[in-house]
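Researcher: Structure prediction, please.
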Amino acid sequence: MQKKTIAVLVGMAVNMVPAGAADAGADAAPAAPAAPASGAAANGVLPTIAVKDRKETATGPVQGFVAYQGASATKTDTPLHETPQSVSVIGRDQLDARNVTNLNDALHYTAGVTTYYSNDTRNDAFNIRGFSSDFFYLDGTRMPAVAGRALDQWRVDPYQLERIEVLKGPASVMYGLGEPGGVVSMVSKMPTDYQRGQVDLLAGSYNHYGVGVDTSGPVDADGRVLYRFIAQETYSQNQVDSVHGTRTLVAPSVTIRPNADTSLTLMASYLRDDTMDSNNFLPYYGTVAPTKFGQRIPTSLATSNPNYENYDKTQYSFAYLFEHHLGTDWTFKQNFRYSHLDLNNQALFGYSLSADQQTIQRAAMNLQSSFNVVDIDNQLLGKVRTGPVEHSLLFGFNYTNQNFMDNEGYTYRGYALNLYNPTTLNDPVIAPSFNDTQMRQVQRQFGLYVQDQMKYKRWVLVLSGREDWVSSRTDDNLGGTSTSQRNSAFSGRAGLMYLFDSGFAPYVSYSTSFQPVIGNDAYGNPYTPLRSKQVEVGVKYQPTFMNATLTAALFDLRQNNALTASPDPASTGNVQTGQIRSRGLELEATAELTDNLKLLAAYTLQDVKITQGSSADPTVGKTPTATPRNVASLWLDYTLSGGPLRGMGFGAGVQYMGSSYATSDNSLSVGSFTVADAAVHYDIPHWRFVLSANNLFDRTYVARCGNTTRCQYGQRRNVLLTARYSW
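Model: Predicted structure follows.
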């Protein structure tokens, strides 16, 4: 099936290559027409040469590694240097230089983001400023998600992306409910007004191979209708025995421009992951620490049953982006997306370790879930002046309707496995009935927001406010009960910065966020939303003598109303008296030091603590598991510009992850680790080759532990070759 699909994609791509394709890069604009030979202009007048200005926009390509515009913080096309909040941008050139194939890899070199280096291929799991980040945004619309649940997370393949923005800190003022650490906002590749295309062939470790097609251009001579077609098929095995899977991606889009003031982009996407459950949770003793007999579990050991496990996820969406200019100073935008996701997941996972540290008890899991989400965001943007003050105004209305269904069944007996003599690995498994969870939840969110970005001489002031109304209904089909909740919340932000001639821009900002909690406390009262607030002080530097952005930020982020154990010994419920505090320092540099040398550098110091809780909560004063205090990374990329090897380049990176805790009482820890990455790329007319290696020296390490039976090995050395033909 994989080979047939790959052959079809290659055939489509070949048929799309125009005769006499220009010698240009994949995303380069067409070259201006050459002047005629001497004597061609008999009247002595030189011919007109059309030159297109391709100034960077917040939704367009990033030229090189350094981005200058962003939209995630303000929903407007704003210079990052004039945004009083920390924002990181990863553009297409950076993704290609590092040969990125998933969102986790894309964020490895980003300050404030803690990515997990495990070989789990089911989802993209990471923290921003110490808090999990489960809500993603694509082209301004929210993707399906349930807070704290990454299992059935919506996936976006980097092959379909133009850029990724990471906004650090509370973002409810722009996006409504969400986690306090920040937001990942992605921008799709859009139709282009010039013809271009590419075919990518991939081959790598663990029988990884695939093919991708990406072509776009005008449909008509006037350029009123543009198209883009993206498709990719990949297959790969895994460092864990018997684990393998296929991904299929199709993402067409069309832009219609009836006049200079109006544009409508219609988009669709389809992605299917037909793979196996690769979580492979392992015990602390045997991975981080040896067993009492000095044993270590091999990284290749599978703890599930390959004849039973399955992870089959299908997702598709339909979207449109509408924009209409109302004169010279006002613009109306509307972003809409309908998303659907289905997941079928069966697996065995370990949940306890025997006293002799040889055998784990495994549970059989059977899960089915689905999402149907409608998200629409209306924006009215305008520019006005009040005396010497320039205002960029934003008025918005957002509506989200998410319908989530979840059926789960577990069997916690009968599936023991000796980790060092796994003779029962393939014993028959009976899929549990859905006797643990049969639930449907409908959540609706209405949001009204307003923002004023003011500029007076060198001063920039941003004021934003939003009111949200959230209602939810949860039907428990097993218990025959239904629970409804209604919440409203105001979120705000204020940011002030000063722009020096030297390129320095110090700033201070304050922002808040909220996140509803479903259910009742120990006394039968509905939970109130989690409320978060952050103070951030920083400085941005944009030198005038080279392409570079450098950012330093200090932050203090606190989440209140966190759940904590009830102090009543007769109660098994929770109360909302907890607080989680995250404070720290982020340093980040993205620079093109010369025309040939590019740099990515990031350092994060985060002190995350559970600072408040009930008297019955033993985690007060402790750090959450899998939350390192120090994270650092460095990437250098050098390209030869002359000589016989002109067009060849070399990239090398190092990533450091500090130690973290494996237990909520902080009694056991996971050691720090350092991994090296490398890449070699070579560009010749029409062709680009990239050979990359993650974990170059094949270090064996534990990426994280959620508790003493949920540890995951880090990814072993993974080599990938990408050959791209462009026209």
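Model: Residues 1-53 have pLDDT under 50 and may be disordered.
Researcher: Thanks, that helps.
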